[in-house]
Specification:
Blueprint lengths: L2 H9 L12 E10 L6 H21 L2 E13 L7 E3 L6 E6 L4 H4 L6 E6 L2 E7 L15 H10 L10 H21 L3 H19 L4
Parallel strand pairs: 1-2, 1-4, 4-6
Antiparallel strand pairs: 2-3, 5-6
Amino acid sequence: MNRRDFLLFAAALPFPAWADPEPLLLPIHQVLDRNARCRAHHVREFWSHIWPQAATDLAHCGIQIQLTSSEGEVARPPSRQPVVAGLRHGALNLVLTDLIPIEWDHGRSLAGVTTLYRGYHLCMAALARAHGHRIPFVATNTVTHELLHALLLDVFENRPSGVWGQARELRVDAIATKIWLLNDGSAVRGPAGEYLARLRRQVSERPA
């Protein structure tokens, strides 16, 4: 499945019967890291399984994806924060790369990360480690998990350290599990509406 085919797939996803008549429209801008050294089977797994599953999860939350994509890059200068190019304001940027930069990973072998980066809303997925739903409450879809960190407003806060940080991860995995197994995204709808309002407000407040 190529990206064009998947744009059509995402747009055609059905919404559950309980969903509000007007779905929330979430702009997602996918950035493909031209510097990534991804193995072919990791790329196939993402497009055929991980991303379709995440898109379906959002549909169960009453969220419709407005998808754009472009090439960009994740530069990793030594002793400096990574430099990410190709991002867009007014969208939740989903950067697809091979491995999370060490400055954000801190040796944790992360499959994904979500953060505010120079005014951009950024989720990053490491295709070498990303996966779909595996184990309830423990290993949920990487993209769903990272998007939820934005939609549940975690992206606006620094990640707590220690047990509080672990509790936040467990909360996100618990909500992702409910979406996955019960098709119930009701816990996401309210915060997601506030997230989108803040995203729009941030764009409107940017200097012309």
